[in-house]
Automatic annotation (TrEMBL):
InterPro entries: ARM-like, ARM-type_fold, CPL_dom, PUM-HD, PUM3, Pumilio_RNA-bd_rpt. Residues 119-481 form the PUM-HD domain. Keywords: Repeat, RNA-binding. It comes from the Eukaryota. Residues 633-647, 655-667, 675-723 have a biased composition (Acidic residues). It comes from Hirondellea gigas. GO terms for biological process: regulation of translation. One of its GO terms (molecular function) is mRNA binding. The lineage of its organism: Eukaryota, Metazoa, Ecdysozoa, Arthropoda, Crustacea. This is Pumilio homolog 3-like. The keyword Cell membrane does not apply. Pumilio repeats lie at residues 183-220. Residues 1-73, 626-745 are annotated as: Disordered. Residues 1-23, 30-48 have a biased composition (Basic and acidic residues). GO terms for cellular component: nucleolus.
Amino acid sequence: MTLENKSSENKFPKLDRASNEHIKKFKKSKGAEYGDAVHKRKTDDADGKFGQGHLKKQRFDDSGKNFKNKAGFKHGKFDHQKRLEKPDWNKMRQDTKERKKKRKQRNVGGEELYDTFTKAVKLWEELRHSNCSKARRLDLCREVSQLFSGVVKVWIKQASGIRMAEHLVTYGDEKVRKLLFDEINSKVQILEIMKDTHSQHFLQKMLRHGNKEQRQAIIAATEGQVVKLTKHTIACQVIELAYSEFASAAQRATMMQEFFGPHFVYFKEEGIKCLADVLKKYPNKKEAVMKDLQKGLQAIMQKGIFNNTLILSLLREYLTFCEQQEKQTVIESLEDGLLPVIHNRDGSRIAMLCLWNGSAKQRKTIIKSFKDHMFEVATWDHSFMVLLAAMDCIDDTKFLGKAVLDPLMKESGKLLESEIGTRVFRYMILGRNTTYFHPDVLNVLKQGDCNPYSKKDASIRRQEILTHVGKGLLETILRNLEYWCRNPQWTLFLGPAMYALPSADLKRTAYEALAKHCAEKMPPEVNSLMDIAHSAKMLNYMIAKDVENKKNKMPLFSLLLLKHAHENLVKWLSCNRGCFLCVRLLETGVGRVVVAVHDLLHNHRSKIAKMSDTTKGAEILMQKLEQTKDVVESEDELEENDEMIDGDNDKTNNDEEEDNEDGDVEMAGDNVEQSGDEDNEESGSEDAEESGEENDEEAADENDVESCGEDDEESCGEDEEEEITFKKSAGSGKVSDSDDDSDDE
């Protein structure tokens, strides 16, 4: 194949990344052409012709007969004598040493400057030692800076020279910094130094330790070159430091404007601080501005320069205003590389935008990229927002549970030690609760509510998350119950967290644990829960939520509190908060609770009446007792309570058997024998719903309960022995009335 025929083909074939087939083919064809050309040359020479180019024959003269190469070849033959000669290693070492010295001398500016550089290095060794005093270090800085005079630009390009210059800038005074900076104080030199591997560190040190004029000179030198410098893998480090830490708001705006097109490179405008301002002021230029911004960002991201404050800020704005197709292109390139930048404010917003605008598969890829770092993501300053956004938009709650919720619940102890981690834990349980989250945080999260890829209703997603973390939440509550009951930061959370438990069994376990804690007898030096304001408020909240628990057919905290803590409830009547707690119990409107409170306070009315003159809570309590004296238990309450007690029976069977062996357990209520193989159940108020089909004993119990609810104080208790007692029943430990026990006997 001739060269002319080869040129007619495609000159730039599309290369395959997976193989070098095209390269091999190209070399092979070129080798064939070279062989044809040599063969033609020999043929022409034999015929006495010099070919088309009229080339002259080139021959070696006699001086080239003794030519030998390094391998010992002489005129195509191997020279064994040369090969067997022993090398002079000392001479080779000396030659290497001399070449190295000459190279160093050449790098620092010549032989004379090399001696000066060596002297400066010796002084610098003493200067950088930790034992050097402050005064001595300053003197050495001044002496070394004099040696730097005139050669700053050359020396800071050397590894040792830049280290000396950094120490001079750090520990020297204003005169030393001025002496060094004045030699490179020009736009051309600053831009050249900014692109050098070693000398760019000198500009970073001047930004950190220099005065205002020196910083302004460095930032001003970048004007018109910001996009080009940001693309440079070395210069971008200086741009990042200048933009993020030392540039003013106006300077940041001018640096950002250069990405919006050539017009803004040469003509800066004061009113434009971000992309939104440009699109608002020039709506007809949106397409051109977005195209220029995309071009700049794409070139920068292809070089891997992603962890840059300026670039992240621009990318966040680009994702906010670009079209959906362009968003998908950006998300595809970022979906597995967001972990290094989510600790940054703009980086976390970019990750949230990717979650909101990404497909279900892309969302999973983003979350999977956080694997093995989920705890760190949940405790960093800005990255926790990404997890909150994931809980709001990911419809696949099974994947969310395995990838996010399970790792966090396993580390719940460590998570709660962090303030940021506590926010994530509370958001898992309570969602967008304004009590625990600032409105600004919630407003940011609301931006993703209208994303096109989330189809599931928010309430359903929230319930599924609660179902997944329910058991872990219960374990955490039981483990920290004593501390949370008395800590003001956690009492606000404890009540809603218990109410948010998804199932009746979990709620009953948590409610009973809290009720038993309320029943504990505290030593004199420890305040009871009613003596602590925030703890008393938490108990009031729990009682108030029983109205909704009744509607949802969930266990009632009020009943468990009356069952376990009745003795402490009587003691708490001596304080105002205790009276208000009883008022809350009466305000629930649950007949069973109201009747139990009336029976509990029956023998203490005189005490409450005396306190009503001085205590507002006692006064209101007396009024509530009068208003609710005719309240009785309804059939629905009795039926629901039977179901609750049946569930409670299974849990407390073992404890009750031990109590029966000791002879310390008394039967409360009536033990009714039912036909068939059914177990013994409690009678009294719980069995009133089957009045038409029950036996005479059950009907008598129902009449006793109704008469106790309808009669006044005098008819309900004729002497002190008729006081309501809360005893453990063999079946459930329910509240029983002493009148019922005496009648059955």
